[in-house]
Fold this sequence. Notes:
Elements: H1 13-27, E1 38-40, E2 49-57, E3 69-75, E4 77-86, H2 87-95, H3 103-122, H4 132-135, E5 141-144, H5 150-163, E6 170-174, H6 176-184, E7 186-187, E8 190-191, H7 192-200, E9 204-206, E10 213-217, E11 223-227, E12 232-238, E13 242-255, E14 261-267
Parallel strand pairs: 1-11, 5-14, 6-9
Antiparallel strand pairs: 2-3, 4-13, 6-10, 7-8, 10-14, 11-13, 12-13
Helix pairs in contact: 1-3, 5-7
Amino acid sequence: MDHLLRRLAPISDRGWALIDSEARERLGVPLGARRVVDFDGPHGWTYSATSLGSTEGAADSPVGGVTGLRRAVLPLTEVRTEFAVPREALLDYDRGAVDTDLTGLDNAVARMARLENTAVFHGWAAMGIVGITEATPHPEVPRVEDFEDYPSRIADAVEILLRSGVKGPYALAVGPADHTAIARAADDGNPLVEHVRMILDGPVIWAPGVHGGIVLSLRGGDFLFESGQDIAVGYDHHDDDHVHLYLEETFSFRVATPEAAIALARREH
């Protein structure tokens, strides 16, 4: 943890314990992508690339009779988002206060989770990450805006995956607005979300950063998330009023089986 420079921060051991605990608790729910992909790691801060198991042609060898191949790798993406905590709030916590202001941490967690979910489900071209919806060969399954036909659309998506030889159970990943709509809707007087879960034989996942919805298999081995440094809190600097911190992680993501997922998209009546 030396690269996080935590020992230089004007934060007590008790204060660091609070920040770490609150960060873990807040990250538990919005990191939706991690609930539906294979997570490997963490492998540490110095871990820099994921092996792709293939090679690339190299330039001519400087010695005759000797050939060379270059191992193909996917570099890990290094992500950082900054936030600040009032120094007075940390001092009050050390005195026994229970209402510590961690609004900055809340906002940083939301940004980090949205970034990770977006990269996994929709890709991040600048970092060489191909997302699930970019990789799938299946055309999008349309749905109407008011969710009245949602169970039938989910059934269509599952049927397409089954015809492609992709067995379940399955999950549905949706953004906050769609998740709320599904949770509030009814199907013949019964909660729509229960009907959807029955079709999937799996969960409906709340994942900020997702556009529309994605149905994907939970059988394993199809979507690979590799963690170097898992999300951790580091110290940047401080002034008279605030301690400036950050959340940081490194990761890569690969789609091993593109046909194991399908996207749902809105359409008009």
